[in-house]
Structures are given as C-alpha cells and as structure tokens.
Amino acid sequence: MNNIGYQILKLPFTILSSRAFLLWLAGGWLVYYVSLAIWMDEAFAFFVSGVEKTSLIQALFILFLVSGYLNLIRGIKVRFSGNKIGFVAWLMLSAGAMLYLTGFFLSINVRQFDSRLAGEGDVIRPSWSSENYRVVDLSPGIKSQYKKSGQDGLLDHEPEITLIDGLDKAYRVGAYPPVKIGRTYFHILNYGIAPGVELFENGRLIQSGYMALRLLPPGRSDYFDIMPYPYRFLVSLAPETDHGGTAQAPVFNLENPRYSTRVFSGEKVIAEGDSGEALSFDRFALGYFRHTYWVQLEAAKDPGIPIIKYGIFLIVFGMPVYLLRLVIALLPFRN
Amino acid sequence: MINSIIYEAQLIGFKEGIKAGLVWLVFYSYLLSNDRKSLAKSFYTGISLSLLLGLSFLLFPESPVSGDFIGNIISMSFALFLIFSGAALYHASGVDLFVFRDGMRSEFVIRTLVFSLTVIFFLPDFTGSAVYLNELAELKENTFMTAVSAAAGIMIAAVIIFSFVRLYKPFWLGSFFAFPQLLLFLAMVKLFGSGIKGISELSLIPSVQRGFIKFIHDLVHQTFVMLMVPDHPLLKKTTWDFIGTFFGPGFASIASLFILLALPALFINHTLFRPLPEPPARTNIARRKTRALMLSDRRKKAVPVIFFMVFIISAWFSYGGEKVLQVYDPEPRPVVADNGVIVIPLKDPVTDVMDGRLHKFSFVHEGEEVRVMVIKKADNSLSVCLDACEICPPSGYGQRDDHVVCLYCSTPIPVNTLGRAGGCNPVPLAADIGDGFIRIELKEIIKKWGFVNSGR
Amino acid sequence: MTNNKSFIQVRNLVKEYKTAYALRGVSMTVEKGQWINIMGPSGSGKSTLLNIIGGLDNSTSGDVIIDSTDVEALDEDHLAIFRREQIGFIFQQSHLIPYLTAVENVMLAQYFHSMADEEEAGEALKRVGLGQRLHHRPSQLSGGEQQRICIARALINSPGILLADEPTGNLDRDNTEIILELLDSIHREDHFTIVLVTHDPFVSKWGDRVLQMEDGHIVGDEFIKERVKGA
Known about the structure:
The complex is a heterotrimer. Chain A is of the alpha+beta class. Chain A has 3 domains: 2-112 and 305-330, no CATH class; 115-191 and 297-301, no CATH class; 192-294, no CATH class. Helices cover 38% and strands 32% of the residues of chain A. In chain A, strands 1, 7, 8, 9, 15 and 16 form a 6-stranded antiparallel beta sheet that branches. In chain A, helix 4 (55-79) runs antiparallel to helix 5 and helix 5 runs antiparallel to helix 6 (304-330). The longest helix of chain A is centred in the N-terminal third of the chain and has 27 residues, at 84-110. Chain B is an alpha+beta fold. In chain B, 55% of the residues lie in helices and 11% in strands. Chain B has helices at residues 7-33, 40-56, 67-92, 107-140, 143-168, 179-193, 205-226, 237-247, 249-273, 284-324, 442-450; strands at 333-334, 337-338, 341-345, 359-365, 368-376, 382-386, 397-400, 403-406, 412-414, 432-434, 437-441. In chain B, the strands form 3 sheets. Chain B has a 4-stranded mixed beta sheet with strand order 1-4-5-6, with helices on one face. In chain B, strands 2-3-11-10 form a 4-stranded antiparallel beta sheet. Chain B has a 3-stranded antiparallel beta sheet with strand order 7-8-9, with no helix packed on it. Chain C is α/β, with parallel strands linked by helices. Chain C has one domain: Rossmann fold (3-Layer(aba) Sandwich). In chain C, the strands form 2 sheets. Chain C has a 6-stranded mixed beta sheet, with helices on both faces. In chain C, strand 9 (209-214) and strand 10 (217-223) form a beta hairpin. At the A-B interface, helix 2, helix 3, helix 5, strand 8 and strand 10 of A face helix 3, helix 7 and helix 9 of B.
C-alpha cells in the first residue's frame, strides 16, 4: 500500500520532470503563438497581455517553468558525467533560458512601478516604499548650443541626478542602467527644460513658478495652463537669429533659451511673441525667468530584473561555447 | 493575342506540378525503402481529393474566401509541418511524445495519418493557386486560356518528373529520409514553393521573414522594457546606435534565421553528433560493421537536412537583400494650404494614393518641414498620419511590404493598425476623404505636429 | 556454402599476356584453414596465380571459386566488397602510409572495411608485439616491425584468406623467422586460410602444404608432415 501511495505521490513529479511533458508544452506554445502571429498583427503584445491577465496562460506558463527546472535538474544528473565543455555549454544555455523566462513571468506579473516628474530639491517616495529620497543635484547633460540638422545629438552626456536617502547617503542615477537603492530600481525616463514663468495682472505679479515642458529636441512645442485663468500657452524653443543658422538647420541656444509663445483663448490665438519681449493679452502679461531642468524619474520594484539579467548573461556566454562545441565536433569527424 | 498562353498561369501550374511531383517522388521512395508501398494509395486519395476541392474554387465567379485567408492557412500548414517534424525527431530520438501503443499503430490509423497529412499539405496550396488563377482570369478577361495555361504548366512539370523518374529511377532517395526528415522536407517544400501571389511571391520566405522579424523585434522591445532601458531620446547617440542595433532589421533578420535554422540544427545534432549506440554483436568485425551501417545511415539522413540549411541560408539572404531589408522611402511631394486646409488629390497623372504604396506630402511651417503620410490599408480605407511618432526624432517612416518602419529606430508597424495613437505609432490625423480628395485642416496638422509629437 | 574440403577451387586457370603465358591451365584446391606455400622460380606464374585468387588480376580463362563465390564473375563493386570482407594481403613491400602512425595505418584498413576503431586497432598491434610502437611512424620502425604492422593490417578485418606475396623478401633470416612464427601462432588461433608465395625454401617449411610451380604449371604438390614450429 505504502508503495502505491508513494507512486501516486511521485506521479506528478514524474510527469512534470519528463522531457515529453516539457516538449508538449513548448510545442503547444509554438502552435498557439504561430496561430496568433499568422492571424493577428500584434501577436506578441497579445501574448504578453495573456501572461499578465489570463489565468489559463499563467497556469501553463508556471507549469512550463516548473517542468523546465525539474528537467534541468534531471539533465544535470544525466549529463554531468559526459563531456565537460558540452555540459557547461548546455547548462549555461538551459539555465539562462529558464532564468530569462522566470524573470519574464515575474516582471510582467509582479512589477510595481511609479514615475513622476522631479526637479532639484524634490522629495521622492515610491508608493511601496517607506523611504524618502531627495533630488539634490540634476545634471541634464544638454549641449549649450544645438544645431538642428537631423542627426546631431542633443546631449553632451546622458542626464543624471543625485538622490540622497534619510541617512544622507548619495546615489547617482542616470538613464541606464537603473540604480538599485534598497529594493527599488531608479532611472531617468525623460528630461527637459522647465522655464520659469511669471504672470502679471495689471502689472502686478500674481503667479510664478517653473513649468516642466517637453520642448526638446528643439522644434517641439508644449503647452501649459495657469489655473484659474482661461488661457492656454503654447511654447516652443525659438532659434537664435544671429548665429548663422539657416532655415533648414536653425541654431538653438540651450544655455539661455528663447521661447516662442502663443496664447490661446479657446481656439483663438490672442497673442504671440518671443520671450525677449513681455507678452501682453487682455489685462495680463506673461514673462519668463531663468529656467531649471526636470527629469521624469521611473522607479520599479521588480524581482524579475536581476533574474532576466543573469539569464541573458548565461545565454550570451553559453551560446558561443555551445556553437563552438558543435563546430569542434564537426571538425575531426571521426567516430 | 487573346488566345495566347498566359505565362503567369503556366508558371503557377508548373510550380504546383513540380511540387506535387517532388513530394510524390520522395514519399514514394520513402515508402519503398520502408517496404510500405501499400500506403501510397492513401497518398493518392489525399492528393486527388485536394486537387478536386482546390479546382472547385475555379467554379466560383468570385472566390468565397480571400487570398489572404488562404495565405494564412498555408502559413499555418507550413508551421505545423515544421513543428510536427521537430516532434517526430524527438520521438524518434527516444522521447516518447505520442505514447504510441500497439493499437495506435494499426493500419487504419497509419492510413488515416498519411491521408490527413497529404490533404493538409496539398489542399491549401491547390486552393490558393486556384484563387490566384481566378483573379488572373478576371484580370486577363480570359478564363479559358488561364485554365489551359495552368494545365499546360502542370503537364510540363509532369513530363519532367516522369522523364526524370524513368531515366534515373531515383528511388534510392528513400534511404535519405526517416519520418522526421520526411516531415521536414514537406515543410521546406512549403517554404520554398507555397507563395500564392504569383510571380511576385512564389515562396513563403518573405512572409515567414516578416513574422520572425516582428517576433524578434517585439521580444527585444519587451526585454528592454523589463530591463528598464529608456527610450532613445534619452541616450547619447553612440549608446543608442549600439542599443538600436538590436532593434534593427539586420539583427532581427539574422536572429530569425537562427531560429528557423534551430530545427535543422537539432536534426544534425540528433543524427550526427550523438554517440552511436553499442550494437549487440559477437565479434569486433560484426560490431564495427553494424556501427558503420548506423553511421552511414545517420550521415545519409543528415544530407537532406544540410541541403535545406544551405538552401534556407541562401534564400534568406537573397530575399533579405532585395526585399526584407529594403525600405521604400518616397520623396515627399510639396503641398500648400488653401484656406487653412491641405488638399491632396487621390489620383493625379503622377500619383495614385490608393496604389498600396506609401505616399508622403510636405509643407513648410515656420521654417520647419512638416510631413504627412498616406497609405491604403488592406480593407481599402486610407490611413492619414503624420510622418512622425511621439517618441523618435521625426525621421519618418518607410514602407516594407505590409508594414511601415520607423526610419530612426526600425520599429515595424503593420499598415493595418495605422490609426492607433501613442507610442511608436505614426500620429493619426483627422481627415476628410471624398470627392477624389483628402482634406486635412492645417490647424489639426500643426496641433498634432506640436502637441502630440511631444508625448501628450 | 562453406565446404571444408575445397575452400578455394582453381580450375584450369590460363593467363595469357601478349607475348607469353603466365599460367597454362592451373587447377588446385585449398581446404579451409590450410596454409599453403607456392614455390617456384621467378616467372613461374606464382604471383600471377596469387593476384588472380585475390581478385587483383583477371584470368584469360578458367575459374576461381572461393567459398562458393565465382570471383571471376563478380562485377567491380561486388569484387571490391568481396576483397574487403574475405581477403587480407601482405606484400614484399610494406606499402604503409608514411605520414600515418602504426595504429592509424591499421585504422585505415578498418575505415575502408567499415569504420575505424582505435582501441581495436591498438589491440591488433599488441597481438603482433607492437604494443609499445602504436604511435610510431613507419620510418621510425625496422623492416620486421613494419611487416608486423602489415600482418595486423591484413588481419584486422578477420578475412577468410590471407594472401602473402614474398612477405619476408626484404628481411634477414632472424626477422623472417620472427614474422613466420608470428604468422604461425596467429594462424593456429584464428584458423584462416593462408596462400603464401615465396622462392625461399626456408620460408616454405612453415605451413601445411607446398605447391611447386614452373612455367605456368603446377609441378609438385607436397604436404608437410610437421610444421617447423608449433605443436
């Protein structure tokens, strides 16, 4: 009886750790994906959304992972005594693939992320974290002059900020790779210029502050509203008039940018002009003062990220060894 | 002229004939070498039924199913044969995939299997060619000569195959194929000869390439998202050039080729590199002879696989060079605003925007070139978008078959999904189409070129 | 069918060259497992007879039947298979490949038969006393050692017949004796048939039987009561 009970207990493991089961799952996925790809345009997006939302796909994915790891363990036992280079190559590739898939699943299903605009002095706290971080330095890396000729880069270096935590420990955070602080990854997702804006009513300053706008690369325009006033301000960077730029390749001064502004009241433009002069409309006037910079900071808590990284690392290094081994096996060609 | 041969129809007939002849030759040889000649009957029944059903589509004045639908079915059948061959290979290598018991090996099951595989193989191809011939007949306004030309093509193929078989009796071919190799062969015949777009696309390779390239691109993109790689405006140009390589069609094309070659490579690994089993033998000589026979059998069965690999690689790059990597990027035609409206004629002596190709129009606004693109979708509606998206610098889009491709970051967007806003999609424009013109409000264009371009 | 009494049957074999006869109607039978020496002066036709038995040469008329197979009737492909399966050759010159090692030379014979097997080839060389010389090239070995490789090579595929044409013609007396003793001991273990051509009366003392040839005829056929060595 005990023996039968043991056999019954063992059965799921026997099935899951069999290559046949793993291959059926892989084959099933292939048929599923190929059908999707043939009949619809965005098959991958559909699949990813299935991994995130459809219980059946999630369950099958987990079964595949479990079966994959059990097969990996079984494979290690079987192959360990064989050719060592072949074994290492196989192990790196298989383990890499399994780690990648595990990270893929985790990242899609358990990633928490948050993003917000921040400037120097702002305090940041991701929704899942109890720790506050302050932006103490923001270095946008933008060139002081930009000639718009299509392929010219906008950056001297990639934008960077410095965050400090509650213990005054400082972290440099750039665009890539994300920096891990505690259990949270931070990186910069976007950046831009925030012009200082002042609104006067009958010559009296009534509002002032920075407006984080997306004006880069020059040529783009963005707008802001100042509540409760019924105006919309459309802003873009204006090219330098005296720096030898042409109509096709205007030159922009990004150190002291000039703004081209149009004021809308509803659909109607009621005023427009460059930042050199005060822009008056109705009883109001709009002025600019020295800009600052903003970044869009993304924070994510995702146990999948390191797993994916290790997976890719193993695949990238395992693949050449694996291929090389095949080539070597081919060279002497004797049995 | 009216009664002369229609060469395109003849080519289609010839292609189907050669395909059927080759498949028959290899399958029949396979049966002979396995002493299962009686199964040929199931094959003949299957191919006859497929031919009859396929030809019946010629009777419809207008095909009840679209060419695209059949194209998809053909792609499915190619994929199935490829997947089946992999499964059969693993099964033959000792992984009991099908849990075949003696009952399952009955003559009836095997006959049904042969019959079904034959129908799955031939029916979509014959139907596809019939639908294409129907369209051709309509175009040439000569149904009779289209049918005669196609029949002539089939006859030429039959004569070639028949003479070849009579002269060389190439039934030794059977010894080069085990069942998995046979399925792989069928998949490869599909890959090389199942296109149904006439001369413009005789093989499936371009559509398979598109599918694979899209998959690789999406996989890379998803991985970048998971690894928190930011969008390129944030990266220095050199960094983006490096990362962008993984997005590019070159990388995707090579990686796709790798994926497609993975299965034949698996065959080679299973047939050539696995250690030979130790045969039970009384003497060294007997053992050595048995092992030599096994080895020679393995090598023989690796030959068609290596042949396919070489074929795939060369075909991949010949298509890759001419079609897949090439992006059609037309010069924008200048337009001007008339009363705040941009007016584009649907057809003029130079251009027909309904011709399925990408058309670009441009005007200068405040010293900056603003571009609009127009392309016909599969449902014959027109898509009108800005030649820019929300993310990339506005380098614009080019056309590659039924995709538009971002010229900056190489993201392919299916033409049929144009009109969606956000992300890598070209920014859609509200346009009034009618009376032979497309009318777009200048205000709409300027607003989107500024507002939407900046990510709102 | 294997018939112990007549493993090799030669019937009325004639070999005619443009100006002369090499064989003028030779008939003989050899039993399975027998070691027969063919003696005679140069030009007596003994090598021609050996070559025709081994399928290396054709006769003008007559039959050679080995183990029920009419060798003369075989086409090129079947003759090659027959030689590969049934016959081992040793010549006066060793004909070893100079840039291959001893074991590789033996493996080459395995390769042309079926497939190479280094372990088995090594065993065969140990059997002829060259266990310490497996990876030496022919130029690093003495004439006697080279001829021992030839024996290993000739016997590696377990042929039914070993044809030896003056196998000790290039060797001194001591080495000749070593080679013949070796051949004798292997023959006693494996019981294959040996047809050996020699003009050296010393060599002809080994074996079971001696045929004398002269001018294309067999002029003597004598059984040796007791081998020089053995028993």
